[in-house]
Amino acid sequence: MARIEFRRASRFFLAFVGVLFFMWGCGQRTSQRSASAPAAGKAEIPLPEWAPKDPSPEFLRAARVLKPMPPEVFAKGDAPAETRQAILALKKRIDPLCWELFGTLSDKQIEKFLTTKRVELRVRELNSKELALLNAVLDGYKGFRIGTEEFDWRVMLYKGGATQDLSNVSIGFRVMEGRIVGFFARVQGKEGENTYGGLAQL
Questions:
Q1: Is 31 strand, coil or helix?
Q2: Which of 15, 44, 174, 188 would disulfide-bridge 118, Cβ 3.0–4.6 Å?
Q3: CA quadruple 51, 57, 58, 61: dihedral, nearest 10
């Protein structure tokens, strides 16, 4: 029964991810170059408007590969204002963390991602910096809800068979439809994965 409930929750979560693709970007102009974008060597790195004021080296590294989601992708978004605000608030918390986590990938891992459109890491092999970022991403979902449905990613992983320390969980990034980059978490040996989409574009 628990496994069936987890599958249902996962399907609902993925349906929510689809909403993100069309919701994010309203009122955003992320395709513009930030006038205060920090320089990397001699070349400036275009940054989204929601980038941290003092982006970390990892965030800047991600910005060399990832592109912000263009506003036109979400032109068809017509969700209620309350839902829109909740998603915008979530993405403001989660996207910078996901970009920074992407920036911790090695050159080899980024090359694999660009070649195969997917890279996957085991949580038990993450270093302290990566683990802290992952926990921040998962904690960012606490209290997030759409309507009466509450989404707590960590709880969903536990219901899907994850151990308390998430040592049997893999995380990663994959390219989805329309060159959209999604961040995912998967309980090893179990069916399906939880995917947070719309955080970037290639």
A1: coil
A2: 174
A3: 90
Place of tokens 């941290």: 52
Tokens for 80?
Answer: 């209620």
Residue 40 lies in a domain: no
DSSP class of 145: E
- Does some domain include residue 23? yes
Beta carbons of 61 and 111 less than 8 angstroms apart = no
Residue 126 lies in a domain: yes
The number of distinct structural domains making up the chain is 1
Tokens 């989204």 belong to: 48
Note the pLDDT tens digit of each residue in 93-126.
999 999 999 999 999 999 999 999 999 999 999 9
What stretches of the chain adopt beta strand conformation (E)?
39-40, 43-44, 118-122, 145-146, 149-150, 169-175, 180-187, 194-201
In a domain, 39, yes or no: no
Q: Which domain holds residue 178?
A: 2-33+45-201
Could you say which DSSP state residue 70 is in?
P
